[in-house]
Write a structure and sequence with these properties.
The chain is of the alpha/beta class. It has two domains: 154 residues, D-Maltodextrin-Binding Protein, domain 2, CATH 3.40.190.10; 102 residues, D-Maltodextrin-Binding Protein, domain 2 (3-Layer(aba) Sandwich). The chain contains eight helices and eleven strands. The protein is elongated, with a radius of gyration of 19 Å.
């Protein structure tokens, strides 16, 4: 039996070899739920105060780390008997974990195409788009590479970090660069957007293509450089409960929180746009 939860910083620990790039956040949760979503992820009527129990696992795109951690804290104040674990990684890595049968309850992706594959395979219920995000150039504090726009990333003297092409931030970056007619040779390809951001924060590169939300989360550690108008650098974020969710009621309640006005408030504060 678990001891009563007390305020603490979220736990961070590795998950599996396949998700070595992921971080996991465990939260002890207290209180009870006001309502839930149905299995498809759409909003449902309140459950009448039914107590939710169990260990809830939420797989979420790395760019959702700060926002979903904050939502986990809200969830902590609203649900009794639940322990939630967040796994943050590249969307393609998370989809692979679902396909391999990893036990999980909710999937939130930074790429609708990746979510569509999970749904088509019968692993997820109908998703709902809950947020949007836009690419932005991140540079170290002080902008030592003097990066002022997208064209500068094609300069061989500018060290650039990009996401691997199979993850959403890499796919989006490749599309933006192709539309601009630019050829960029990155010095590193990272497994998710947080890894790109880390390279920028540490000053190991002059620039990285990340999301607006990552620049917001980094605070004074980095500076943001906007992409030119018409770059079409915005992506949708869908969320869904998984068909094999060990805790479908708690999964639906978490999706309900994401879709609620509270969820929108937290996501907006983190820099996400509305769908």
């Amino acid at each position: 039996m678990r001891r009563p939860a007390r305020p603490r910083s979220p736990r961070v620990r590795p998950v599996t070899a396949a998700l070595a790039v992921a971080v996991v956040t465990g939260l002890g949760l207290v209180a009870c739920a006001p309502g839930a979503a149905d299995a498809s992820g759409s909003t449902a009527e309140p459950t009448g105060g039914a107590t939710l129990r169990g260990d809830l696992t939420v797989l979420a795109a790395a760019s959702l780390t700060e926002a979903f951690t904050a939502l986990g804290e809200r969830f902590e104040a609203a649900h009794a008997g639940v322990h939630v674990t967040f796994v943050f990684a590249g969307s393609s890595a998370l989809a692979a974990q679902v396909a391999d049968g990893a036990p999980a309850d909710v999937l939130a992706s930074a790429n609708p195409a990746t979510m569509d594959e999970v749904v088509a395979a019968g692993h997820a219920h109908a998703p709902v788009v809950f947020a949007t995000n836009t690419l932005r150039i991140a540079v170290p504090r002080g902008n030592p590479g003097a990066v002022t726009g997208l064209d500068d990333l094609a300069d061989p003297a500018v060290k650039v970090a990009l996401c691997q092409p199979e993850v959403p931030c890499g796919t989006a970056a490749a599309a933006v660069l192709a539309r601009a007619g630019l050829e960029v040779t990155p010095v590193t390809l990272e497994p998710d957007v947080k890894a790109v951001l880390a390279k920028v924060r540490l000053g190991e590169v002059d620039a990285g293509l990340v999301y607006v939300t990552d620049v917001v989360a980094a605070g004074d550690d980095v500076e943001g450089v906007d992409l030119p108008p018409g770059s079409d650098a915005t992506t949708d974020y869908p969320v869904a409960t998984l068909t094999a969710a060990p805790h479908p009621d708690a999964a639906a309640a978490f999706v309900d929180l994401v879709l609620s006005p509270t969820g929108t408030e937290v996501l907006s504060a983190a820099g996400f746009g509305r769908p």
